[in-house]
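REQUEST FORM: STRUCTURE PREDICTION
Request ID: SP-0412
Submitted by: Lab K.M.
Chain count: 1
Length (residues): 201
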Amino acid sequence: MIETDSSLLANFVNGNEKAFTTLANKWQHHILNFAYRYLGDEEKARDVVQEVLLRLYMSLKKFRGEAKFSTFLFRIITNCCIDTIKKNNHNSKEISFEDLKSDPDLEINIDERTVNPGVKNPADIAHWNDIGEKIRNALMELPESQRIVIIMKEYSHMKFAEIAEITETPESTVKSRMYKGLINLKKILSRNGIKDWSDIE
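STATUS: Completed
RESULT:
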């Protein structure tokens, strides 16, 4: 029988350390995937995974289920990513997860769309690598509030309601940021030689 997050949490709180290991194994790929796209650096993303799991371990026994586990987890992931940015950019503005609710102009780095899995020949691979680099650079130019929504929606496949809960902003605001982010992304990509959305599908 497949154990749910809820049952694993209950077992861990009741003293079953193996339950946390199972939970960590279940989620570590999602954590790495999100952190890599957020930071654009595999080594830093792997460090974030370890930090997230440590913070998760330390805080789970205080978790009372006021929010879904996934919401609770992604708040930790986002905070860890923000802390990583702060540590590696001493001249940057001090930011926190709370800032994402009110400041639309904060900027941090994230990664590009993954290479199209249908690509087979070297010319196509080179083409998609170039497209990926342009997308990464374009995403880096977006305001943080727009960038984080695009990552959560397009890469983590979250629903607008989930993103709203995680970022603690109204769903209408999340949708607005997504819309504006995609418009801005298209403008930036167009400026960098990608004139048609079909080029990146």
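NOTES: Residues 5-92 form a domain with the Rna Polymerase Sigma Factor; Chain: A fold (CATH 1.10.1740.10).
Reviewed by: T.R.
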